User: Which sequence fits this backbone?
């Protein structure tokens, strides 16, 4: 390009034929500045050579900067800078060490094979899910009176431990006692009636046998034989009816006796008396008429089989499954955490709170734990959750 410009300038000067000394000097300078095309044919440095120069240049710059830092901040700052530089140079060395030849013999830089750091690197990071809830005793019995009566004795107090079948409350009902006595009398009357019918049946059978024998000798008319058969059948039916009356009387006495026995209220399960509403002199209603819990006599709770019902955010429901483990701590015992495990996930979501309820089984609980205690829970989910809460001993 410069040669073309010089040739054009020379032709112009020759055409004008007014060349001056100054113009000739300018033309000579232009020729001396002309650049041959071959001068642009430069070769790019090899990628490996350029790559190897980068750590050296960084090191030289860092060394120069470190001298200035030592002058102003002291040797401790210099040590921290040297550690950073060593890490940087190590990264470049690692990159260079993993250079691999590409197709055609070219070098591909900056590529390193994936490192296998073991199961820890392959496992998903663990995640904690927290929630809150209360201690619940699933086995709780609310004790009512089966029949109406008046409380004449209370055999237990709140907090007592009881066994199944143990007497709790005694009631009195004069009507039930009178009904039992009447049923016993009816039973005796039915027994006497049955005995009378059996006697009549025996007489009718004997008469029929004698009549049949005489009729066989033509000593008794056919009409007499027919009357004897009818009397026997009537006596037989009477005896069967008396047998049914006796069975009914015995059923009535069993019902009356059961009502009287029910006036002695016993424990349906073993556990602890957690509530006591019965007092001597109170008149209680029958179970059919008592529909509210506060109309019951008392409550028994099996405190050996308690669980925790806790709520966690609805956003975590995809992570929840039976078998997840974690920790719980009670507000009453904040320094005694214990192990929990998810046993059930509620099938419904609370629309009002936006939570899902978990039922958690407990292990190694505090000795003083009681139903309705507030609890806070922490669950660990993810592939790396195994042993996250309690790592195995070395």
Assistant:
């Amino acid at each position: 390009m410069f040669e073309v410009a010089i040739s054009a300038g020379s032709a112009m000067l020759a055409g004008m034929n007014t060349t001056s000394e100054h113009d000739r000097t300018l033309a000579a300078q232009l020729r001396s500045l002309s650049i041959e095309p071959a001068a642009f044919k430069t070769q790019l440095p090899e990628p490996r050579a350029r790559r190897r120069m980068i750590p050296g240049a960084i090191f030289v710059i860092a060394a120069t900067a470190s001298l200035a830092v030592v002058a102003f901040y002291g040797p401790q700052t210099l040590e921290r800078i040297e550690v950073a530089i060593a890490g940087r140079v190590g990264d470049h060395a690692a990159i260079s060490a993993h250079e691999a030849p590409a197709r055609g013999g070219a070098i591909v830089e900056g590529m390193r094979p994936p490192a296998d750091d073991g199961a820890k690197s392959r496992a998903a990071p663990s995640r904690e899910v927290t929630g809150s809830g209360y201690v619940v005793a699933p086995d709780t019995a609310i004790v009512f009176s089966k029949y109406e009566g008046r409380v004449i004795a209370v055999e237990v107090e709140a907090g007592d431990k009881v066994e199944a079948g143990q007497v709790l409350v005694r009631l009195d009902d004069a009507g039930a006692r009178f009904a039992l006595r009447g049923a016993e009398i009816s039973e005796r009357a039915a027994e006497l009636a049955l005995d009378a019918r059996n006697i009549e049946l025996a007489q009718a059978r004997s008469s029929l046998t004698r009549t049949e024998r005489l009729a066989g000798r033509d000593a008794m008319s056919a009409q007499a034989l027919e009357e004897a058969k009818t009397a026997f059948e009537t006596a037989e039916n009477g005896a069967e009816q008396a047998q049914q009356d006796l069975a009914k009387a015995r059923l009535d006495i069993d019902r009356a006796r059961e009502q009287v026995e029910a006036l002695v209220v016993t424990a349906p399960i073993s556990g602890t008396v957690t509530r006591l509403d019965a007092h001597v002199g109170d008149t209680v209603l029958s179970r059919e008429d008592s529909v509210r819990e506060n109309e019951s006599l008392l409550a028994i709770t099996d405190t050996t089989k308690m669980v925790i019902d806790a709520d966690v955010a609805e956003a975590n429901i995809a992570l929840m499954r039976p078998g997840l483990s974690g920790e719980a701590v009670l507000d009453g015992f904040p320094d005694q955490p214990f192990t929990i495990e998810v046993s059930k996930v509620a099938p419904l979501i609370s629309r009002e709170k936006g939570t899902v309820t978990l039922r958690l089984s407990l292990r190694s609980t505090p000795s003083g734990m009681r139903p309705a205690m507030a609890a806070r829970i922490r669950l660990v989910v993810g592939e790396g959750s195994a042993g996250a809460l309690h790592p195995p001993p070395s």
